[in-house]
Amino acid sequence: MNSDRSTPSADAKSIAVRSIEFVAAGGREDFDAIIHPEALNHETKTEPPHTRVPGPASWHATALWLRQPFADLHFEIRNVVADGDLVAVEVTMSGRHVGLFLNFDESGAVAGAFPPTGRSFAVAQSHWVRIENGLVIEHWATRDDLGMAEQLGWLEPSPAYLTRMLWAKRRARKARPV
Predict the structure, then answer these.
(1) What is the domain extent for residue 117?
(2) How far apart are CA 175 and CA 104, in angstroms?
(3) In CATH, what number is assigned to the domain containing residue 85?
(4) The pTM is what?
(5) How many C-beta atoms lie closer than 10 Å to residue 26's C-beta?
(6) Among residues 40, 62, 42, which one has the least CA distance to residue 51?
(7) Contacts of 131 (CB under 8 A, 6+ apart)
(8) Among 37, 51, 83, 161, whose Cα sits 20 to 30 Å from the Cα of 111?
(9) Residue 135 has pLDDT above 50, yes or no
(10) Residue 82: Cβ-neighbour burial (10 angstroms; 0-12, 13-18, 19+)
(11) Total of domains in the chain
(12) Which InterPro entries does the entry link to (predicted)?
């Protein structure tokens, strides 16, 4: 491989990795530096409505949404592969469930509410990031949401936790009308 081709791939890999690591610990200015103003995150369909906008605001809003319920949020980078403007990043996402986690339906209404369990999780994810002119322009992900839900006790919940989930969902819907 010639050096002209390897340098852009190295830069693209670095940008893609930072876009993921910033979710755990980056500020708005970090996202502004690497996310294109018209960038599209294809993974916001179950996130709060304010994450479903183009550009750095979406990535920053997603980061804040995930940091609230998950302490010690971390993305361990496993593998990074680039082919032209597309970068694949394999990670293990981990954290501890310490706050209320909400997910949303397409209309923006609360679809699920998961009160804190105090449990830790570690799940595999693959992120696909397209880079344009040195900035992230698109993002897709494949996540082990089922594995995370099982580790956190959200699936096969005890009757007591199921009751807590239902009450939390009711309170969240009242607090966040569509």
Answers:
(1) 3-175
(2) 13
(3) 3.10.450.50
(4) 0.90
(5) 20
(6) 62
(7) 11, 12, 15, 16, 85, 86, 87, 137
(8) 37
(9) yes
(10) buried
(11) 1
(12) Cyclase_SnoaL-like, NTF2-like_dom_sf
